[in-house]
Amino acid sequence: MANLKSLAKDTAIYGLSSIVARFVNYLLVPIQTSKFASTGGEYGIITNVYAYVAILIMLLTFGMETTFFRFMNKEGMNREKVYSTVLRMVGTVGLVTSVIVVLFCRQIAELLGYGNHPEYVVVMYITVALDAFTAIAFAYLRCEHRPIKFASLKIANIGLNIVLNLIYFFGLPMLHLNPFGIYGENFHYDVVWVFYINLFCSMFNLVFLHKELRGINHGFDKKMCRQMWSYAWPILVMGIAGQLNQSLSQIMFPKVYPGDNALSELGIYGACIKIAMIMMMITQAFRFAYEPFVFSKVKDKDSKEVYAQTMKYYIIFTLLAFLVVMAYLDVLKYLIGESYWSGLRVVPIVMAAEIIFGIFFNLSFWYKLTDRTIWGAYFSGIGAVVLFVINLLLIPRFSYMACAWAGFVAYSISMLLSYFIGQKYFPIRYPLRDILLYTVVAGILFAAMMLPVENMWIRLAFRSVLLLLFVGFIFRKEHLGPMLAKLPVVGRFFR
Q1: S-S: 256 plus which of 76, 395, 404, 439, CB 3.0-4.6 Å?
Q2: What is the CB neighbour count within 10 angstroms for residue 392?
Q3: What is the number of helices (H) and of strands (E) in the chain?
């Protein structure tokens, strides 16, 4: 129980920073969707480019975050040398590839469909290279259990992004200022400045992590480098395949969807899945805390029991988050421009897919702890193939709804494969009966929330009651009342 409390504490800090940062980041959605109408396709460009960015960050970190945690907790390893070696590996790859991209930016832009805008390629690649380098410093903060600095920098970075967006979209036009001709004629907004703002924010992280980045001075171990690469390359393949499950739809869509409004349709999908990304916040917060936790607790006698209980509580919490979003979707939809509301039907599908992805991540530790990381590549690769086939066949007919269902199916297949094969190599007795019960109850309540109620206020009240029923069910099933009764102030309500 002490282990779970420690994990809960770190997850709460990472989660709070992630939720605050994402919530603030959500402000970008109404800002950008209000200035870039869905019919213009500009937000579709942003969605498409960031899909490539998500793949690039996997390539440029090439599994070194997980590898870093593994080697930092190995007996006999020089922790300073581990950190320095990883920093040098990631930094060198980022620097060399950035030079190549700058030299061949026009050819790459043509290949991606942005031949008239090679600056998109240059700015975003350098941004990703910086992010990959600082990702190792952030991993170091996690490994050293310094969630406060981690959280502070993440929130400050997003806040800076928001401020610069507000200045670009509102501040300078209101003052009729056009420095360096950034707007062109008639104050026309250009998506490239969204990318420039991201580059500036990445440089901000680089500056404020300078103390941690000094760890690069502790030398480079060639033998350790080879060992790390042997461990990391399957994770790289797994990471790319896994990220393809999240980004491939946005990459494929403009190339597969017929007609001239592909970017407009993609923009609608990209804006609406921002609402569903609350589940990604939870999964990300859980991952930040859980990854170092797992590797540090592997030798404990009760480790498997802890992993099983963690899975159950993760599923309970994500199902609750799913119902919260569904209950108040009528309010949350105002985070995006009204012209994008036609795509809100993808939200429950994408959120369910993110829950399944979180379960898949939770299951993934059996092959990381047993050094069978190649299995992760197999599972994610199969999922990516399924995603590609579904998108290729169904996007022309069903537009972005095909993207949502493709992700759901792909994650489900990867999750099931990991569970059944993992039980052979690293058996864990998960509380499947409880998990199934919570899932069924949440499914019934979700179906009830979708019943047609014309008046919005009555609809919100009805859904709130259903949500409270699920909370009450959790309290009763998990016997949380006595535990909460021990808390100061609020505890008297549970006595």
Answers
A1: 395
A2: 14
A3: 23, 0
Nearest to 412 by CA among 358, 347, 375, 368: 358
**How is residue 68 written in tokens?**
């870093």
Q: Is the dihedral of CA 249, 251, 255, 257 positive or negative?
A: positive
Q: Which residues of 69-103 are buried (b: 16+ CB within 10 A; e: fewer)?
A: bbbbbeeeeebebbbbbbbbbbbebbeebbeebee
d(CA 255, CA 240): 20
∠100-101-107 over CA atoms, to 5°?
Answer: 110
Tokens linked to 387: 């995603």
How far is the C-alpha of 85 from the C-alpha of 67, rounded, in Å?
A: 11
pLDDT per residue as tens digits for the range 102-155: 999 999 998 888 888 888 889 999 999 999 999 899 888 888 878 788 888 888
Rounded CA gap, 464 and 267, in Å? Answer: 31
Residue 452: count other Cβ atoms within 10 Å of its Cβ. Answer: 5
- Each residue's pLDDT tens digit, 408-462: 999 999 999 999 998 888 888 888 999 999 999 999 999 999 998 889 899 999 9
Q: Which single residue is written with the structure tokens 């939870």?
A: 282
91 token code pair? 């930094």
> Rounded to whole angstroms, how far apart are CA atoms 423 and 420?
5
Q: How far apart are alpha carbons 280 and 285 in whole angstroms?
A: 8
Residues counted in the chain: 495
Q: CB 320: neighbour CB atoms within 10 A?
A: 16
